Amino acid sequence: MPRVLGTGAYDFKRHRVAEYPVDPTATTTTNVVETKQRSSSITLTEIQRDKLTKIATENWLSNNSESNNISFDEKLVKEIYATELSSLKNGRKPVPLQRVMILEVSQYLEKYLWPNFDKQTASFEHVMSMILMVNEKFRENVAAWICFYDRKDLFKDFLERVIRLKQGRELTISEKTNYLVFMINAFQSLEDEVVSETVLRLAGLQSWHSLSYGRFQMELCLNEDLIKKWKRMIKRESKEAIKRGETFDPLSSVEVKFLRNLAEEFLEVLGNFPEDRSIDDDNEFVDACVLYCERFMEFLIDLLSQLPTRRYLRPLVADVAVVAKCHLSALYTHEKGKLFSQLVDLLQFYEKFEINDHTGTQLTDDEVLQSHYDRLYSLQLLAFKRIPKLRELALANIGAIHKRNDLKKKLSVLSPDELKDLVCTKLKLVSKEDPWSEKVPFLLEVMVSFFEKQQSQKEAINALPLYPNEQIMWDESVVPSINYSGEGCLALPKLNLQFLTLHDYLLRNFNLFRLESTYEIREDIQEAIPHLLAYINNEGDTAFRGWSRMAVPIKEFKITNVKQPNIGEVKPSSVTMRITYSISSYRSHIRSEWDALKEHDVLFLLSIRPSFEPLSPEEAAKATVPVKLGLQYVRGCEVIDIRDEEGTLMNDFSGKIKPEDKKPPKGELRTLTVALDTAQYHMDVSDIAEKGAEDVYGTFNILMRRKPKENNFKAILESIRDLMNEYCIVPDWLHNIFLGYGNPSAAQWTNMPDLLKTVDFKDTFLNADHLKECFSDYEVGFKNTDGSENPDPRPPFRINLPRTLKSNNSALPGNTKSSLDSANDVNMVDASTEKEKLIVEAYMPPDPGPYPQDQPKQNSVRFTPTQVGAIISGIQPGLTMVVGPPGTGKTDTAVQILNVLYHNCPSQRTLIITHSNQALNDLFEKIMQRDVPARYLLRLGQGEQELATDLDFSRQGRVNAMLVRRLELLGEVERLARSLNLPEDVGYTCESAGYFWLLHVYSRWEQFIAACANNEDKPTFVKDRFPFKEFFSDAPKQIFTGDSFEVDMRAAQGCFRHLKTMFQELEECKAFELLKSTADRANYLMTKQAKIVAMTCTHAALKRKDFLQLGFKYDNLLMEESAQILEIETFIPMLLQRQEDGYARLKRCILIGDHHQLPPVVKNMAFQKYSHMDQSLFTRFVRLGIPYIELNAQGRARPSIAELYNWRYRELGDLPNVRDNLIFQKANAGFAYDYQLVDVPDYNGKGESAPSPWFYQNEGEAEYIVSVYIYMRLLGYPANKISILTTYNGQKLLIRDVINRRCVPYDFIGPPSKVATVDKFQGQQNDFILLSLVRTRFVGHLRDVRRLIVAMSRARLGLYVFCRRDLFEQCYELQPTFQLLLKRPDRLVLNLHETEAYTERNVENSSGGHVVSGTEEMAQIVNYKIEQLYQEREMSYQHHQYISYPAVQNNNNEVTANDNAHEIEPSEAMDTGILPDGQNNESKEKQSNGEAEPQANQDSDKKAHTEVETKPSTNENLDEAGEMV
After folding, report:
1. b/e string for 985-998 if b means 16 or more Cβ within 10 A?
2. Which of 544, 704, 880, 1062 could make a disulfide contact with 551, Cβ separation 3.0–4.6 Å?
3. Nearest to residue 1269, comparing CAs of 1425, 1501, 1085?
4. CB neighbours (10 Å) of residue 483?
């Protein structure tokens, strides 16, 4: 049985990594070798020569000393801190980033600071240095806490020391910021047992000791349940104080005043911000203060947005009146405070969030409104009784006083003292001791913000445009550019462990998904517009000299219809516009792209107005992107229809035009009817009316489109918004877990009602021994159906499952402690000395029928005990999580879950979701090999065409299959009628066939059964009396023998089962017979007929509205690749159906993935790094401690290669096939080792290069890796068994260029199976992988362990890693893998005497190899082998000429062409590029703008193939052939 795991320090480590360039303008200190101007970041050579590196080598990086023997010098720590970490003035950067990076890479924390930390003796500088190192790890998104777990008790002491760090010491503003960043990181790590236990005390109930007395009274009165809790806490604290012999003084505790002290410290810094608006831009101290204020806002937002910290913090934030003071501060309105003001608004949103803080329940709109009315009523009552001056306010209706301006006006009649008395004494909103209480504007702000009506969150989201406009698009605070470094904060929500409510969850995802889409749209605009070459013509209008594939000038546009608003709304219900443009300047293939526009496609209207004079270099350097582009406005729209020049409708999907009537479009003008965003239109029109703004809709001159696959954001945003407007029904058993609260194991099957008590496992077990192996902790007993013992059991088996299943070490869920901190200790069951009994029923399945097609398909996979445990969990109700390491059979497990589930719950429907079409097709193809009828399978989306099957599983294909099957079955019915001597017209329709079944078939069977009851002693009775014997006369084998009544009766029942299935299928075909339209038939198939429906997560999000309208229903959800799917794209498939009677129908949710491999793709680095948008739901569940089953046997790679990555998993072993199969035992021919790290030094004097940011290349590695590939091809390795991977797109394109030059022109080499990035190759594999790691300065994003795991786990037989050894062997996170790699030589070792692709040499035998010195020698080896090949070909050709001279005379040209097409001398091979010359790699220059040009590569591929095909056909032209190739 499997081991069910939770989370912990080993299971989940935060390790999202991105590469960030160091500021090129950063001043170089004397500690760094003086260099000329830096282009991007410091080099490895500079790092090695740096003073800090030398200090590290001398003190903690010496290879010959263990960490515990290193002598520690506290003075050195103080010196490094004083001179390197705090001496520089960094402005908005609280630390000198280069210095911190060098220290962190040198393992300053792991090998020096932490091993020598002592709670009592560690200095301030020591603790602060550790804080900086931890912050840097979080900035780079690598595992920050893992090094502390060797001494957990001391880790707790370190955190306690951090909490008390400020006692008796005044920190600088940079130190305060760094301290605050550390606390932010700590509160974002609540899944960590030690961290959460320590920091949650700071936001606990004891923090209310620091509340003002009035606020304290008010909070206890509002929450009477807390009074008892408060009294118990006071009693406990006083007892503890007495035990220590101290006087009980709650305010003396650091935890009590920690948050309040932080708030007061922040307000002090905020109050010191100068009022003068002419602050020097270079005032570094002011910048540092601004950064500190922004970070404090982030800190409070984080704490208020998760329930454990919000519950007791919100009253404190209200008591100090942080939001009101921020609104009145000078920074809030200053130009330097733009980000700060956005953060303040976000803080105010979360302070007022619609939730009951103490129960955690979401407030409905009615409850929020009623609460607002109650507050105003109380104020009016108070004013009427005690404040005569406010009589007007007391008697006013609520509608007259709930707006901000109305309230201020009513309160303005009070004097300052009266206002202070009202706010501080009567209402107790703030303390009268607060210095700000003397300020009238502050008191008014507190009153107004407390009593004004807040806009409903639903109203706010519905009023938000779905399309981005130019204002949000270039706002760096919310849509940062790609070079976000992680040093500052952003006005963005975060996706962390917990959410306040489902609405909060949806809102955060909505905002982030919208902004991520905005970023992608912005990049597309910046790519398309420059190609148009806009200018101002003589008439003063905008004109265009150039052209763009994705953008076309607009000839004419006009708003055609603005409909009245719906009831209760102010925005129009719809706005339509007509746009005319010309495609005359485009070639045919681009014209067809524009003509392929269809309904619901999203386009963008742009207003371009360039400056009359070109910008000077100085102006261009300071100008924003919109100014450079001349971009004024951006608006989105959705296509309604498209017409040609004659007004004929194109791309009609409504059925108005019959397919045979469709004609090619006429003319070059196209007219689009589009729908505008009504919310954006209302905002624009309001600005025109109220502010006199320009009419945006009179300025558009460009229409831009995007690639269809990247342009589905609007449908997904609409789905999220629809969910926010609905009463979301997540199943009760999943609700709390989904939000991150409650018992982590509450949704496991052992804690669920309505379990399947008896499970028919069908073909899961291959035999009885297989079953015993899977239940090794039980004494398995087999019985027959009648209860007797079965001495020779054979599958299939039925098992009565106990609620708690045991295994050797741990069990399936059942006894889990219901707390986050017990997550590693899941479901331990005491194993008694005597094994429990497990009774298994071995039954004889009924005869399926006499024909081959009646026989069920059988599983041949021998599932491991862990896989069987996953299958058991998956078929039971509740949440099942399966972690599938590489090669462990995730897909087979998923398919068997579906198979067993179908047979045990045939009436239930299952929805399959995957991230990619490839994974979905793999899953679907394997389902078809199981005993699930094809008529119950349906594949939705665009990928069904790629299914490698003979059958069509799309909706249309299934409908056609049902109609064809109907005719086949009716033909069989007619044949059956003939065999019974009845009229054949009974097979005319499905309905008539149904009557025929009841009247003639079933009745005859009943008569036959009745007759058999009295004749069981007659062996030939069945053979003689079976009524349908003639119908089954065409069976391939004799059905009845007449020797045994029982045997013949079983065969007769099989025949009747065949007939019953046939008429059941006809009954299912009846609907397709009655429904006449294709659409109705397809919808019926999807909503009623199909039992297993498969689609991608993107298709589910796009079509959710359609599914709801059709009444789509399903009971089970299985999600493959769930660790690669965005949170929101995992959530939407759970809600593709409407609830039934207020309850969710979903019974099972099965998530299969691997959080140790790469996460979902998020293009904007800020959303990855700051907002954690790339966190999948699967990963979050693992972090929350929800138990999971981890598959533990891989069958993909050699055991030696698997060791490179299996350290990342618990007990990942090998299946027998990778140990026993001959292919895994033999060595790789031509190579001494099956895997090796190959150190690649500088090539032509350089290592990595970056023609543009993030576009990293390494020419030496590219040439080396291609030479090795050529070497493998010359030995005879198949090209389709070799893949070349790299970690950067720039290197991928460079390698492709080298391959096009050195490999493609030659038939005996050719291109490899694939050249791809590691990220794109996830989920794929090949026998041999050549891997280029590219970097020579910094490790880069390979430092993300998940990327390393993917890279190491793609190879089955051979893995060769080309990289810079000195760089990667020092990386702390990668050491488990690189220590193994470096046990072997770091120079490639070849077996040159092996000349074929197969060898008898054992894989352990690595002797007698030749060590390759580097790139140049590898090229010489390849050159020599090519020369040998040419000599062999020449000799073969001469021999052929000698043997068949007459044939040559008769057909000389043909023979020469066939044999000598690639006969090129080695010297010519050098000229044509087989050998590296370092001069032909054009991709470095080609990518100077940092953007990939796949089209160019495709063109070059085509060109290469064309040139090979047109090679000359005579020996005289051989030299010309070499030159041409």
Report:
1. ebbebbeebbebbe
2. 704
3. 1425
4. 12
